[in-house]
Amino acid sequence: MLSAFRRQRSKPYRAAGFCPRVNLLAPTAPLEEESLHRYRPGLYHPVKLGDIFNNRYRVVRKLGWGLQSTVWLADDTKINAHVTLKILIAAAYDEGTRSQPITFETEVLQHINHVRSDHPGHKHVSKLLNHFDHRGPHGTHRCLVFKVLGRDLSSFSRQWSPPRVPSPIMRQIARQLLSAFDFLHRSCGIIHTDIKPSNILLGLSSRYPELHEMDWIQQYFDHISVPRGIAYPDFMFRQGPIYMPVTDETMVEIRLADLGSAC
Question: Are the C-beta atoms of 242 and 73 separated by less than 8 Å?
């Protein structure tokens, strides 16, 4: 069942770093975002705040970017909730740009969704909520919808001084990560192949229902953008991943993400 998407490999996704308080960039400040030259046919889709995708998802903030995608916080107007919208480059799936896709991320995620298992690692793998194709000026882009998660492990470590995750929290993360691996290997027959801190995202433990998702999203809900002008077109925005209030090991619940290079 997995043979089709075992044939190809995709380049790794690079998640954004944690940035809880970000002001508008000064005109002379360097822009450490995706390259402008990648906004061309076959690559990135130009996204503006307020854009509506699939008559349902309204873009409200940029969360990050990678070689194969840009990632956005969006309002799901159908269920009145926030979601993560990952917009792949057109060449990832667009038959008009290449003979076959360069990633099988959708197929891998759908396979995981179809696995019925009570394995404890099941909840530590990011799940696909929806997917659709969006036609834009640079081609047809596969769009993937996920639950909103927080920072990646790399940026999370910078919350501490020195920048190192405390041992009790790291042990909890390691246990959950190994459980996620075991679920993928034993229950799904999948190997991730791209394990790194930026692909390990933080979720909020269900033990803390009083820390409602809306509360911590709202704290960092300001639109973050670069100055407008010749150098910065109106679809270039500064990333701002979601901060989550994790202070001890009981609050940690990781999700293993980006299965675009899984086999």
Answer: yes
- The vertex-176 CA angle with 172 and 182, nearest 5°, equals 145
Among 152, 194, 222, 248, the active-site one is 194
Is 258 a residue of the active site? Answer: no
pTM of this prediction exceeds 0.85:
no
pLDDT truncated to tens, each residue of the chain (263 aa)?
A: 444 434 433 333 233 333 333 333 344 444 466 777 788 888 999 998 899 999 999 998 888 888 888 999 899 999 988 899 999 999 888 665 555 667 788 899 999 999 988 999 999 999 999 999 999 999 999 999 998 887 888 878 877 778 788 888 899 999 999 999 999 999 999 999 888 888 999 876 555 554 455 555 555 444 344 444 445 556 666 666 666 666 677 778 899 998 877 77
